[in-house]
Amino acid sequence: MRRVVFPLVPGLHLLDLAGPAQVFSTAADQGHPYRLHHPGPHATGPNATGTRDTDHARNPGRATGDPRGGRAAAHDPHGNDPHGNGPDGRPHTTVPTAQGLTLHADATWPDLTPDDLIIVPGWRHRRPGRPPHPGVDAATAARLAAHHAAGGTVASVCAGAFALGQAGLLDGRRCTTHHALHTQLAARHPTATVVPDVLYVTDDRVVTSAGIASGIDLALHLLAVRHGPAAAARAARDMVVHTRRNGDQPQDSAMLRHRAHLSDAVHRAQDLIDAHYTRPLPLADLAAAAGVSPRTLTRRFTAATGLTPLRYQQNLRLEHARHLIGQGATHDTAARAAGFTDARMLRRLRTRP
Questions:
Q1: Taking burial as the number of CB atoms within 10 A of a residue's CB, which of 4, 149, 180, 303 is the most buried?
Q2: Cα-Cα-Cα-Cα dihedral of 207, 221, 32, 148, to 10°?
Q3: pTM for the complete prediction?
Q4: Are the CB atoms for 105 and 8 separated by under 8 Å?
């Protein structure tokens, strides 16, 4: 039985946890030997030396640094209750999420082998008027480092990369995180190479992914590494996931990359292109939809996006064709489905800088 451990921290994002967790639970339903575990903050269990945290089990308050000890110290600032019991009757701790739903987390860590995985979900990193999220506790960081040192794989989703950094696992390695956190991660870990605009990065059994939905891509990648691409494809089909994306794909689509502007006219034109990019779209029709002249639309569109309307439409077609080719379609079939008259234009665009 292989274990997949998701350390839970207060303020975690539900989809950062649920996406990869469902990949492995789906794999388990398909006959692969996976069991999921969700230890909470200050959970007891094997520590970095392989012994049990018996002092913590007897006195949770002492382990968290609270001199009061006992039950009075059991309620940390996040409202966790290490003495609570979950639906299965085992000791659990409650963990609040960024979306307001409270989770029951395991109060103990399982014994791990190098075949097991640890995946750290991301959390709400910063809220207005509040300090940055403190990350994981020292014992959890030590367990991440110990698991990797023993030959295991450690992964993260979104801000979970900061936990891997706390464990010293990013030093000298390539990594990524949510695009809004690249600068902070690089500043906190200057010896790491933070790779922008990718879905996930693997470096010596340290796997980091971008925001939210990229956690599904990461989990499918890990499943493919262990059981082959067919197993990952079956899990993706069962989950009705549109595609299993490669790690070096951009974090967002062309439809999103060129929307960070304030021109209503350009947004109206983009809405029409996004909905009908496989069809011929005369500039006059786009200008009419935007409520400006063709010349004005071209000028504003280029100023807002860095592209002409035609180049923007070609980028959408090219992105769709690349997806189809990645799913096994021929160049001719992908070109026609994306709106190109033949594969020659597609090939020219694919080699264009």
A1: 4
A2: -10
A3: 0.63
A4: yes
3 state SS for the chain = CEEEECCCCCCECHHHHHHHHHHHHHHHHCCCCEEEECEEEEEECECCCCCECHHHHHCHHHHCCCCCCCHHHCCCCCCCCCCEECCCCCEEEEEEECCCCEEEEEEECCCCCCCCEEEECCECCCCCCCCCCCCCCHHHHHHHHHHHHCCCEEEEEHHHHHHHHHCCCCCCCEECCCHHHHHHHHHHCCCCEECCCCCEEEECCEEEECCCCHHHHHHHHHHHHHHCHHHHHHHHHHCCCCCCCCCCCCCCCHHHHCCCCCCHHHHHHHHHHHHHCCCCCCHHHHHHHHCCCHHHHHHHHHHHHCCCHHHHHHHHHHHHHHHHHHCCCCHHHHHHHHCCCCHHHHHHHHCCC
pLDDT of residue 259: 74
Spatial strand order of the sheet with 102-108 comes to 39-44, 102-108, 91-96, 84-85
Calculate what percentage of the chain has a pLDDT beyond 90.
Answer: 53
Report yes or no: 83 and 71 within 8 Å, Cβ to Cβ: yes
Catalytic residue among 158, 159, 218, 290: 158
Instruction: Label residue 45 left, alpha or beta by phi (over 0 means left) and psi (-120 to 50 means alpha).
Output: left
Greater model confidence, 16 or 347: 16
| Residue-wise pLDDT tens digits, 227-263 | 876 688 788 878 877 555 555 555 456 666 787 677 8
Catalytic residue list contains 158: yes
**Beta 174-175 vs 206-209: how paired, if at all?**
unpaired
Distance CA 8, CA 98 (A): 12
Supply 61's token pair.
Answer: 């308050």
Q: Which residues pair with 114 in a beta bridge?
A: none
Strand partners for 262:
none
